[in-house]
Amino acid sequence: MTQSMNSKRRSRSANRKRTGTLSPVERIRTASPAKVDPDSGRKAKLATIHKALYSDPVDVATLRKLAISHGGLLTDDIRRKAWPKLLNVNVFEIPSKPDADVKSHRDYHQVVLDVNRSLKRFPPGMRDDQREVLQEQLINIIVRVLLRNPPLHYYQGYHDICVTFLLVVGQDLSFALIDKLSTHHLRDFMDSTMDSTKHMLNYLLPIIGKANPALRDFMEKSDVGTIFALAWLITWYGHVLNDFRSVVRLYDFFLACHPLMPVYLAAAIVLYREKEVLAGDCEMTYVHSLLSKIPQNLPFEHLISRAGDLFVQYPPSALAKEAQLLYRQSSTLSKHGEFEQTSLSQRPDTVLRRRQRQLADRRNQLSTNGLDQKDHSAIVKVAVWALTASVGAALFAVLNTAAEWM
Asked: pTM of the predicted model, to two decimals?
């Protein structure tokens, strides 16, 4: 009897192997990755992003993690909603245009020259008349930001960052985002000299040295310095990468991170190319030529992950002394903690839109009722107070809670 049962089991097992009929456990073990729905993870991430955007207050911490994680924010439609939240910009309160004529600014002619030379930054195949409209908008955006912030100085490469925002979010929102970015992440690049920018680049070799002492030693012996990475840093790689999708993916990452993250990514790129560097002559012109020409087929998802790991292992505070840059000397770095905290109190766009409509309805109602200006002003003030009381309470709570950087 036992021999007969064993024989039947062997027969059923052999038959399953011949016919392809497997048990549930065997099917799990032998499942082909090709059968997994490739869109399931994307759909789940889209749902999580929208949940974070429509939370009240907006779940900025989750939004940052999603912008950093594989694939970033996925689509330009999401970026139009998420980038303002990452920069703490209210899309319903876009700053007004400065009264001064853009042509009156000291840097106007240099901006025009740079924008006219930036043809490769626009989509291939775009009609000349469409591109010319965008170029005019780009000039206006840049000079409007400079007019609004007199201490800021234009630098060549700034337009490479601005055009990316223009192509993704449009003219008016670009102005608001770049205005905020220029007084925070990009602030050190916009001094009257390049000193602060060079100091930020001073972090590059210490990061490389912590991860790979031999590579740093080779680079120092070659006297290559860090100027090869200057265009990477000040344009957020927009000037050196031809693939627009790669550029906006990096912008997702940078907007969600510390202002020095472009330097950490530069370190990740150099470390990734270690074999190429060490295989050549230890000579400045060779190493500079090799590193300054950034490959277009780099595995950016891997490099983003590597840059994040380097940041965790070797944070800026641990490298500041060697980099000869104290936090208090850098406007970009010293203000970042406060910037991150205040961004946590944002309301979702649905609430902001509803509040805007309510204020508009109240003004219309007051106008219809023929109230005099004094009464109108008093009632509007009460309305504004009532609608924003919860925002003030939330902000008070956030400012009294230490925000932990991811």
From this structure: 0.74
